[in-house]
Amino acid sequence: MGRSAFVRNIITIVVFITLEALCIVMITNNSIVQRYNIMGDLREVQSFFWEKTGDISYYFSLKKDNQALVAENENLRRQLGLYQQLGAVSDSSFTPISGGYSYTQADIVKMSTSKQHNYMLLNKGSILGISEGMGVVSDNGIVGIVDAVSDNYSHVISTLNVGQSISARLAKNDHFGLMHWDGVDQHKATLSEISLHCEAARGDTISTSGYSSVFPADIPIGIVSDIKQVGGLYLDIEVELFQDYKSLRHVYIVANNDKSEITQLEQQAGINED
Amino acid sequence: MKTNPSKILFCAVVLLIQIVLSDFVNIGPYVYLCTVPMLVIYLSMDQDSIGSMLLAFGFGLAVDALEDGVLGLNAVSAVALAAVRKPLFTIFFSKENLNRAIIPSIQEVGIFKHVNYILCSLVVYFVVYIFFDSIGLENFSTSLLRLVFSCAANLLLILSLDFFLLNTRR
Hints:
The complex is a heterodimer of chains A (274) and B (170). Chain A has 274 residues and is of the alpha+beta class. Helix content of chain A is 36%, strand content 32%.
């Protein structure tokens, strides 16, 4: 098809559309019934496109909304930490000197979940005050502990690491022990060295104990899925984790504001946490 | 229809017939007798698409104005028919005839092909006409009956006019 033929076809289409539009305008202007029905149909088409364009713009605004929600969540966590701290203080006769925990939102840049020693890389580093030994949590529980930092990134040892232990307890009666991952199922971990008389039952909630300076107390971790007696002395509790590592994207780095003071005190007393 | 005066005369006669049909012939709600499709179908094939559409628009508006109907209803259908006139023609006849000054009539192309061509043209015309005429009002079966009866009646009308008008003049 030559260029002139192409232009001629375009002109033909334009003339056709113009004449048809002119006819439809005349029809709508000369008949109330046609006007009512044609305008009704046009409104329907218009509404359809408005709805679709609304959906599209909503989709593209999701990222911004998500960021706003994450920031708001971070702020709420910070406030919650302060309220918890105030609540603890009000029950105590001691003067409030603790600085509590502060939270920094971070995104996961890289992560492994299929190895025995899993890790993740976060997009926040020492410039923003992140340091080694800080805990990492998400909305569904604990995630890991910061192991190394650069200016803009943090390396985190995931809870899915056979060498990692977290202090956890049964929420209903505060019996605590060490929780570790057995390297098999990423949805399950084992809470060991729980005393025999703790009356644990399937479905009980396991949360952080707060006995380390890494994680605040009472962060839900999972539920009891199985209980085994070990050597007639202790119980090993299988924990079904709340955290789904495969869908993890946003996390919070938890900083204990009193950590340096606690570490200093532990050093003075000759206690080594590790 | 080789000279302009004869074309104008043909159009005038057909429009006159349309007035008569509109004012004196009422077959029922399912049949609409209309001569506009004939005016578009019998346009010379060397007439380009833009010219055909403009002429069809004029014929449609003239008929709409002459009869007591909705202005634009015949025009919208006539323009649609004019737009598909050439592609329809190539379905039934060879492409070589497209650019010749041929007028598709019984004498030119034979009765069987001609009837099929007219019938398809009428379907296009009345689908558009009935759509805009009964938009949002009638159900599908009523519209289908209108389409079938109107196409059949107008086919007979066009064949009759072809025989009496064009045959006589030839």
